Amino acid sequence: MYKSLKDYVEFLESKGELIRIKEFVDPVLEIAEITDRVSKQPGGGKAILFENTGTDYPVLTNMMGSEKRMAASLGVESIDEIPQIINDLMKDLMQPRSSLLDKIKILPQLKEASEWFPKRHKGHAPCQEVILYKPDLSRLPILQCWPFDGGRFVTLPLVHTKDPKTGIRNVGMYRMQVFTDNTTGMHWHRHKTGARHFSECENDRFPVAVCLGGDPVYTYAATAPLPDGIDEYLFAGFLRNKAVSLVDCLTQDLQVPADCDFVLEGYIEKNAEPVIEGPFGDHTGFYSLPDMYPTFHVTCISHRKDAIYPATLVGIPPQEDKYIALATEKIFLSPIKFTMAPEVHDLYLPEEGVGHNIAVVSIKKSYPGQAIKVAHALWGAGQMMFNKMMIVTDADVDVRNREELLQCIQQNYLPKRDTHFSRGPMDVLDHAAQQCGYGGKIMIDATVKFDEEGGSVKNSSISDLKTLHFTSKVEELHGIINIILDNERLAENDYLAMWLLGNNFDPVRDSSYVDGKLVIDCRSKSKGYKGFTRDWPEYALSSDSTIESIDNKWETLGLGEFSESPSALFKRCFPDNYKDYKSYKKD
What we know:
Layout: H1 5-14, E1 18-21, H2 30-39, E2 47-50, E3 59-61, H3 67-73, H4 81-94, H5 100-105, H6 107-114, E4 119-120, E5 130-132, E6 153-154, E7 158-162, E8 169-172, E9 176-180, E10 183-185, H7 193-199, E11 205-212, H8 216-223, H9 232-240, E12 245-248, E13 255-257, E14 262-269, E15 275-277, E16 280-281, E17 287-288, E18 291-293, E19 295-303, E20 309-310, H10 321-331, H11 333-339, E21 344-348, E22 358-363, H12 370-378, E23 389-394, H13 402-412, H14 415-418, E24 419-425, E25 438-445, E26 466-471, E27 479-484, H15 488-492, H16 494-503, H17 507-510, E28 511-514, E29 517-521, H18 544-553, H19 566-571
Parallel strand pairs: 1-2, 3-20, 4-12, 22-23, 23-25, 26-27, 27-29
Antiparallel strand pairs: 2-3, 5-19, 6-9, 7-8, 7-11, 9-10, 10-19, 11-14, 12-13, 14-19, 15-18, 16-17, 21-22, 24-25, 28-29
Helix pairs in contact: 4-11, 8-9
């Protein structure tokens, strides 16, 4: 448990996990470029504290951007400790208890759980040490991360809303584009709980409170895929084994953690027309396109005297969100097993899949069709509904060992027999889907087949092929699964090729069979391609001028050995100006 973001910073520094930069670095583009270089270093680099931002407040980035820091943010030595605690707790709670003595034995667990519930703060709250009733967002070091972003964005906001009917609190994370000194956008998608609360509000003004900082466990809890109605601060209390202390807001009927660093209070007008928000270089690695979202009106800003402004950078992986996703993958495996798919043995979300595009699942298979059943169960589980490609194996396969996984596919997968398609909800940020928020899904069944499923006889015509083949030449199909990319340089870069596999295809529209092989078209799409009617976004890359600026000042920043810009490396994957490829002619 940490008393503030400053407390967490001091802990990281004591462990050699922090870099302090004292020279001025501009929150517009420069902080993001430095963070991108550091976060892509082996193991995620270090957290960075930018002490000179041209404002009164330092900026902390990459604070959870390694396995060590992710664990530290949750107060444990290893993330593996948390699922074990959950597993033991769920087993204890779900055991049948017939005798009075058995029921009494559960009381210690219930008492401990009662101490996780949020409580009311007593005394003056640290987050209200400084109060600005005339709010001015320009005083905060809010970042612009990429050159074509619509402006500056708050990227780690903890957005508090209440269900208008039940009063149940929700804390979500929805980016906020700064419009004026006292207004921002509120980028919540319609499937998000905050958006539902707003849609059910019957008053003229819908109250919202946005927190930044505090114990980093709050930030993680806001990203966690909790069921609707489960209080994020109850979950935070469980993770840190201590209740979150909440204080009343000053201008809105909401409560926020008393020890957070900043609080932005305000409202959204129920009957106001939505406004254009974006574009924004998003976690997919592409710009999410401009769209219509509500305006958040800030009525008050309060903060700690020693406040630190937290920010994250999202873009082409790997980034900090890789490690947040890794924690979620481990922590929520046990609840999935207990509540939805008990046959699930392991779940792996490769970082190239930017959260949920690609999933590899191993199962304890006992009957035919079970892999299909598990796929549909997981596609109905919270944020897993956004999954685009799922590979299912037997439990004896290490889903994190790529060679073992490819060998499993080679032995057990016949494309026409074992490829299953569906349609369903997609992330609004999925630019390849035929319709915004709705598209195709694919499941590759790499389990050993029962007789009813066709047995385990391998098709001799493809048995000698590579398992996975990346190419830009549609006539060169040398794999059981063939991924078609825009150019050969991308096909030669295994990491980027896997990332584009997750991003650039709609499984139903862009998959086909050729001579028994599966062919997936992951090239950029143009309007009119097989009925595709949407704009294709640009890659989120730094400008040449920003790259040059950071190159020139690198030695003075105390960042150690020079790291080349990831954006510069990516641009070299294209033979010409990288922008030209979005209008590339398709076959």
